[in-house]
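Quick log. Single chain, no ligands specified.
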Amino acid sequence: INELVRYITPEFVIKQNLEEVYYDDKKVSQALIEQYHDLTLRTGNRDAFIDRAKTEDSEDYSERLRRIENETLILWGKQDSWIPVEHGQLFLDRLPNAELQVIDKCGHVPMEESPILSLNIYRDFLARVKEKMIDNMSVDLEHK
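-> predicted structure:
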């Protein structure tokens, strides 16, 4: 089937995938299907998809997350059927400076399915990070 996908990617396959990743199928419009279909047809994207699908690496790299010290926002759809929300908790447990925000009634792509709420979550997160950075700079200057 991989060789078939390399040369033929009908829109119904895209529609089926989108209906899997979106919690609310009503948000899967013909325009969205066409947008994803067009992206799929871009040079190299089909090969990249096939390469990713063939990955059989079973090594657990999650412990490497502990090395990431940056403030990190983990945004997850509560009804993500591809990667369950419990994996978001795994990220949270391993990232030392992370916060997990779970959006109800969202699937695998909450930033698309609930863009305004996602944007507000991102903005609030960035405002907190900015405030923390300013506080840390003030403390550093006081100690010099």
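The longest strand covers residues 72-77.
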